[in-house]
Amino acid sequence: MIPASIAFHHFGCKVNFAEASSISRQFKEGGFLLKNYHEVADIYVISSCVVTSVAEKNAGLRSTRHIN
Question: In whole angstroms, what is the distance from residue 63 CA to residue 68 CA?
Fold first, then answer.
């Protein structure tokens, strides 16, 4: 059975980076294949810290590019 693949990308603060790292480790331990965000994956997790309008804008632009 081929494991499902998952990719993470975060915007904004260091807390997002720390949380994404912790979550990605849990997925890896659960048998998921971790992929780079720019690679094709079965699941994409996008987290954003919207404390700044710049992070919010970048997250919206990036997610739109992958949907199209």
Answer: 9
